[in-house]
Amino acid sequence: xxxxxxxxxxxxxxxxxxxxxxxxxxxxxxxxxxxxxxxxxxxxxxxxxxxxxxxxxxxxxxxxxxxxxxxxxxxxxxxxxxxxxxxxxxxxxxxxxxxxxxxxxxxxxxxxx
Length: 113
Known about the structure:
Structural class: mainly alpha
Largest sheet: none
Strand content: under 5%
Number of strands: 0
Mean pLDDT: 86
Radius of gyration: 15 Å
Number of helices: 5
Distance between the termini: 19 Å
Helix content: over 70%
């Protein structure tokens, strides 16, 4: 399981996980406060995006990109339903691209080492 989480782009150390989860908690609370969205709903949507990340890990990069972008669009629409969905696509592409880039880098690192 640890190898799967590492390949998915999650932290590899205990301190990394603590920092990662603290940053996610802070971001979730700040976003919920700024938008008025219930923090539990937002946390659930973020958890759903993590599950999608793990579930699609073995898919080709192009399909992972599509799934990540779709997940972020759904998350955005849940947080800010009054704004058009296409506004978030550039940011979703950057986020998804960064996640997939890191996943591919880690896979290549494991294969090389």
